[in-house]
């Protein structure tokens, strides 16, 4: 490790490693990159504990476009991330699609409005009547459903750690340095950050500091005398087995079931021979950064009743695994924050993804790299999700947040 780097990235999970990859992959970038990661096992990283899915079904054009790029990037990931002498990475991308169900007039209206935005962006999403839904997925009880929205391509789930490790391996092969350490202080001289101090005692000079520290983003910002409205929110995921699985019963997509979002907010999707499920918690307080105790009661009290009512295939199920992870939750508007601080321009945020970090990682990493190299966005304009709205207390509205 040197004493000075052009870019120091705080956090080496999927967002930090995506930034490192895109910087070092760009021939216009001639600088040095250091990634500081406190836990190289990533065992508690939001990346590792997520449900690792991607969808284009958002209400805002920029979020649709971010995921469209993410989907294309994931499809070509193996070739892009190939490192000489190593196996070609495979994210095992299952394009099972997302299925949103609407049971109320408001939910129906939201799906219709979202669909107009999605189609205008070229997303492959269709709206189905109750009858069309029943034909496509005959295992579902649909008497209460007014409308369904289904992603026919470009949506699904993939390997979360595969995405992160692929970015990391390629970034390192391209010259990025990784160090196992923890940033404990950030030096600042007026309108610029100047250095990071590590737990090991090392002081590293920095031309630019990128905050990619996930649920700990506010801690990192505060070291520079700044702020960001991000806090850890706990989400518990459950893997369950079915006595009689409905997987394979669909009349679309070769029988494969999608990631279904019930009107109750409960979701589930196939996971090998099992299913993965979760639900928005009834109460959603900020939690301690080290609190990973699952909320076991959510399965019995929220998830199982909703799924059993939706499908006879989900009446006889049993949990085989569960875990809790953290959303890096943006309390202002639940959306990503990608951009420079308006007063401390060499401090760059890549935070607040609120559960969408994996799918938005490729676009966010590319966007941050463009800000650093060119001083502005060159491909997808992410200014709508910059820090300025945070400073102004102006929420960026997205209606399709799960």
From TrEMBL:
Domain of life per record: Bacteria
Entry EC no(s): 1.-.-.-
Residues spanning the membrane: 7-24
Keywords for the protein's UniProt record, in alphabetical order: Membrane, Oxidoreductase, Transmembrane, Transmembrane helix
Presence of keyword Membrane: yes
Domain FAD dependent oxidoreductase: 6-371
Pfam families the UniProt entry points to: DAO
Molecular-function GO term, any one: oxidoreductase activity
Keyword DNA damage (UniProt): no
PANTHER family: FAD-DEPENDENT OXIDOREDUCTASE DOMAIN-CONTAINING PROTEIN 1 (PTHR13847:SF287), SARCOSINE DEHYDROGENASE-RELATED (PTHR13847)
Protein name in UniProt: FAD-binding oxidoreductase
Organism the protein comes from: Gemmobacter denitrificans
């Amino acid at each position: 490790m040197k004493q000075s780097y052009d870019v120091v990235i705080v956090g080496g999970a999927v967002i930090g490693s995506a930034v490192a990859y895109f910087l070092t992959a760009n021939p216009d970038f001639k600088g040095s990159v250091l990634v500081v990661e406190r836990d190289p096992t990533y065992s508690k990283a939001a990346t590792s504990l997520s449900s690792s899915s991607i969808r284009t079904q958002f209400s805002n054009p920029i979020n649709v476009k971010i995921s469209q790029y993410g989907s294309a990037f994931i499809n070509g990931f193996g070739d892009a991330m190939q490192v000489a002498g190593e196996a070609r990475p495979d994210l095992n991308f299952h394009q099972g699609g997302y299925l949103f169900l609407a049971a109320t007039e408001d939910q129906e209206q939201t799906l219709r409005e979202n669909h107009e935005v999605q189609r205008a962006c070229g997303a492959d999403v269709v709206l189905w009547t109750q009858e069309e839904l029943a034909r496509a997925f005959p295992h579902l009880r649909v008497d209460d459903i007014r409308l369904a929205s289904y992603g026919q391509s470009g949506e699904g789930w993939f390997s979360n750690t595969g995405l992160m490790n692929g970015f990391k391996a390629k970034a390192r092969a391209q010259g990025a340095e990784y160090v196992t350490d923890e940033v404990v202080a950030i030096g600042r001289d007026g309108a610029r950050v100047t250095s990071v101090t590590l737990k090991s005692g090392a002081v590293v000079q920095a031309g630019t500091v990128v905050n990619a520290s996930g649920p700990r983003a506010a801690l990192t910002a505060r070291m520079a005398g700044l702020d960001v409205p991000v806090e850890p929110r706990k989400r518990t995921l459950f893997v369950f087995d079915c006595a009689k699985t409905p997987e394979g019963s669909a009349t679309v997509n070769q029988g494969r079931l999608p990631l279904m979002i019930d009107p109750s907010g409960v979701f589930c999707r196939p996971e090998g021979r099992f299913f993965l499920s979760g639900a928005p918690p009834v109460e959603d307080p900020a939690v301690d950064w080290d609190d990973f105790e699952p909320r076991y009661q959510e399965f019995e009290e929220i998830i199982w009743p909703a799924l059993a009512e939706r499908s006879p295939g989900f009446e006889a199920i049993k949990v085989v695994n569960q875990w809790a992870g953290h959303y890096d939750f943006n309390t202002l508007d639940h959306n990503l924050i990608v951009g420079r601080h308006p007063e401390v321009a060499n401090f760059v945020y890549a935070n607040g993804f609120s559960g969408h970090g994996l799918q938005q990682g490729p676009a966010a990493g590319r966007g941050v790299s463009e800000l650093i190299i060119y001083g502005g966005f060159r491909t997808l304009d992410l200014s709508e999700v910059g820090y300025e709205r945070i400073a102004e207390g102006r929420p960026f509205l997205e209606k399709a947040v799960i």
